[in-house]
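Thread: "does anyone have the structure for this chain?"

Original post by V.I.:
We have the sequence but no experimental structure in hand. Need at least a predicted one for the grant figures.
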Amino acid sequence: MNGELLRLVDSIHRDRDIDKEIIFRGLEEALLSAARKHFGQRDSLMVTIDRETGEVLAFDGDNRISPTELGRIAAQTAKQVIIQKIKEAETEVIYQEFEAKLHDIVNGTVQRVEGSTVIVNLGKVEGILPRREQVKEDTYRPGERLKCYVLDVRREGQKVKILLSRTHPDIVKRLFEIEVPEVADRIIEIKGLAREPGNRTKIAVLSSDSRVDCVGACVGVRGSRIKNIVAELGGEKIDIVPWNDQPEMLIAKALSPAEVYSITLNWALNRAKVVVPEDQLSLAIGKKGQNVRLAAKLTHWDIDVMSKAESDRLAAETKLALAGTQGTSEDTIARLVRLGYSLKDLAQLDVADLTSLEGISEEEAKAIIDAAIAIVKARLAEQVAARSAPPAPVEAPAPETVEAAPETGEAAPGETAPGEVAAEEAPAEEASAEETSAEETSAAEEAPAGEAPTEELAEEEHAASEAAAGEAGEDAAAEEPQAPVGEETEEEKARHRE
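Reply from O.Q.:
Generated one for you, tokens below.
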């Protein structure tokens, strides 16, 4: 029996990865619970198991108790306690295992799809991939293998709940660590990352070794490394740019593939004005503003992209609007325009922000800010008034003036003579009379046979008598002898003789 107990403990240890000491302690607590069930609650009861031989030692004070004395009910209680302890130990092992993998990537298989939630089989436990952590363009089929980012691990009763993600930005970092050994060895460092799941990711990398090309190492030979990452992310595009401590250089690289004409930084508002050629404007902004939006996230700068013509227009507008402001000089306004400040930028600044610039006094800064605020407010009020104003009424065309007809009886141009009006009205009256007679005829036809007018009956009788007479005449003509065809009559013969 002792050998069987040791083999049982060793089997549970291998199958469920539970420490042997935890199993021995669970068995001791189970046997002690069974002894108390049989002998009652006594403080003198004690149960131990020899870790080497597997021998069970039970004592009630100084008296040794045999496990066979506990009975069937006590043995059933011990079984339940052992099962409970093993489940608790297994849950603890799973929790510790996945807690160590928190914010890391795990491999799993799609088990099933419940509504909008995907259940992923992670081996010992199931993970949950909620809808908010799924890429919209992805579809999940049972049995499909995928990599997920462990977002959270927590206990819920006797179970461990593992929350997974496919949209977290760090999943891209972990994939680079798997595919690029230089990133895993910290030779190449990922300095920044901006991602819109399913569409595009921008990543900035820096190499600590001058002999290693950070961008080339991440791309791999013929794109072998980056292709694996793109395939795992479902075709999501990835832009890799070299990191630079100078914001101007980093912003220019982040806006690639667009070419940048000039960059002006506003440190007070953390804003960068980027001027690009006219033909590069749409490329710099990207589809639905995606390129400039990701560049702003990557560099942590608020980026305004505009063409050279737009930049010149804003500069001229700012210079003209602030011209003549009391207490300011033209040189100061021209300097602010060269630094890229617009009216909206100046309206958002504090006096301390402008006085930090060399050569601008506190009074001058206050005057410039007040003027910019007044102009911006006035323009906003005009826009609000224009939107709330009712639409302008549409003017009706002016009526045409008609000259009076002369008294001579002649019709004026465009008018009809009185005789012509009467002539035109006469056919209309005749047509009306014809319509009236047609209506009477139809009414007579629709009337019942018993209500037909007397005149109509007389006409019908006259027509019937004429038809009968015609038929009689035809019969008489048919009875008269006809001369044969080709023979002469008596009268014709007499005329010939004469």
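V.I.: this helps a lot. Residues 404-458, 471-487 have pLDDT under 50 and may be disordered.
O.Q.: and Residues 262-381 form a domain with the GMP Synthetase; Chain A, domain 3 fold (CATH 3.30.300.20).
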